[in-house]
Amino acid sequence: MTERKLPTHVGAIAGRYIAMFLARLLYRVTITGRENVPRTGPVILAPNHTGFLDAPLLMGTCPRPVHTLAKKELFKGPLGWLLHAVGQIPLDRNDPSRTMIESGIGVLDDGRILVVFPEGTRGAGDFSELRTGLAWFALRSGAPVIPVVFAGTASRGRTFGAMPGLRSRVEVVFGRPVVLPTGGGRTRSALDAATEQLREALVAHREAVASRTEERK
């Protein structure tokens, strides 16, 4: 049997420090709930997604190195080389490949952190509609899912112009782990039920963050 090739862990460690340095240099970053991320073992981070800054910001603020499923269009030229070098994983959102699935499961089986944007693309970031990929990885691996919400990264970042200005205040809030019931099976009905359970948990976390942010104004 051919040994499964995993994304580089050393690269992910280096990427974390680079992203951490740039985040602190360019923005005023607040991190809440870091203690909710288990110190060891497989973990899935499920962030909302509104802007270009989300993925690198998460890379630099998570207490452990991460491997992010990112759209394959980014893996071209110098940027593509860099993403591979820091251990990120290309994803075809319309046709997930066996290689991508094996890489993601391999990351979790190796006790690392996998980042799955559950909405599949940038948008309102309200978790109103989730793709089933997040639930599939959670059911397959048994890893806890950590909801993540960004505040201040963008309202709806379809362009680089929507990114926050230099030294703007941005916040990353890690929620409490969500563990799906074991033995739920991998049928379509089980996958749909798990997706809905995760959606409710993610929406509740986002609403709690929004309420707290509103109270501080």
TrEMBL record:
Q: Which SMART domains match?
A: PlsC
Write down the CDD domains for this protein, in alphabetical order. LPLAT_AGPAT-like
Q: EC number(s) of the enzyme? A: 2.3.1.51
Q: Does the keyword Transferase apply?
A: yes
**What range(s) does the Phospholipid/glycerol acyltransferase domain occupy?**
43-153
Output a single Gene Ontology CC term carried by this record.
plasma membrane
A single GO BP: phosphatidic acid biosynthetic process
Q: Which UniProt keywords apply?
A: Acyltransferase, Transferase
Any one Gene Ontology MF annotation carried by this entry is: 1-acylglycerol-3-phosphate O-acyltransferase activity
**Pfam entry (one):** Acyltransferase
Which InterPro entries does the record associate with it?
Answer: Plipid/glycerol_acylTrfase (IPR002123)
Q: Which residues form a coiled coil?
A: none
Q: Does the keyword Acyltransferase apply?
A: yes
Which class of enzymes does this protein belong to? Answer: transferase
What is the recorded name of this protein? 1-acyl-sn-glycerol-3-phosphate acyltransferase
Species assigned in the record? Jiangella mangrovi
